[in-house]
Amino acid sequence: MIKPILLAASCALALISAPLRAEPIVIKFSHVVADDTPKGKGALMFKRLVEERLGGEVKVEVYPNSTLYGDADELQALLDDKVQMLAPSLAKFEKYTKQVQVFDLPFLFDDLDAVNRFQQRSKGRQLLRSMEDHNITGLAYWHNGMKQLSATRALQLPSDATGLAFRIQPSAVLEAQFGQLGAQTQKLPFSQMFGALRDGMVQGAENPWSNLYSQNAHTVQPYITETNHGVVDYMLIANKRFWYGIPHRTRVELESIIDEVTYMVNQEAEALNQADRERIRQAGTSQIISLTYEQRQAWREAMRPVWEQFEPIIGADIIHAAQTVNRKHRQAN
Ligand code: LMR
Description:
Radius of gyration: 22 Å
Low-confidence stretches: none
CATH architecture: 3-Layer(aba) Sandwich
Helix content: 40-55%
Distance between the termini: 73 Å
Order of helices and strands: HEHEHEHHEEEHEHEHEEHHEHHH
CATH superfamily: Bacterial extracellular solute-binding protein, family 7
CATH topology: D-Maltodextrin-Binding Protein, domain 2
Bound molecules: (2S)-2-hydroxybutanedioic acid
Mean pLDDT: 93
Strand order of the largest sheet: 7-6-8-5-9-11
């Protein structure tokens, strides 16, 4: 007879101890790009799946296009728990980790597949944890695409960029990259890229096709050279204290949703960029310049000193691990 009483008591205890949430957990997800981009679509898919599978327990609010926070203040807002998730470009973390700058090295990765292979390997995964001491936890890598060079001048050889000013992300590597060309740089928030190009504050920029198109950069840049000289990819991050404060069962479900969203974003990113390349071509406001093999090699050689310059800062082991994903890929072909 004792057993039923013990069972009843343990159930009552479990009910009392379970955290009774009157209010849902709110995840504010802020980012700086348009909805119809790889990151924008990923944020909206995350919101949709969370509402479908954790509705009532977790509420996701998406703030696109720098409408809540922008480049200048989004990371501090995360640390202050004013937003709970971001997906900044990998070029925007140098204040918290120098290792992630590996993604900014020009001509390091042959293509997005090589970037993907590096991100899946141990060194790449290790970088997701490189900011944990700053209360930032990396949840996933999301792709956008390879960067192209837009300008007011036709850029076929590195010397064509000399004397121009380019808008860049807040990255010492990107500043050095353009310095190798004798070009100036302006570190500006993404939300100011179009205005700076339109008003002549800068004469050029670098971004994947989807960012150039969605910000209308092609309407104020008569030339876009298809260099594929680097990558804009993202790290999906959360405030670490917030993330690990979510009840385990709920967090496991959120992480499963993130895996599903990451797969979609990374599967669709290249197609989205190629579709926006075609939209730019059809708009006819920019001439798309293709490079010969020799011309592209000239850009690679001109920018190459940046690798040696940043090897002591990034780490030779990380650069070597990134290089191997290309080499094995080439050997395989
Ligand atoms: C940029 O600032 O150029 C990009 O990183 C914006 C973005 O998040 O894609």
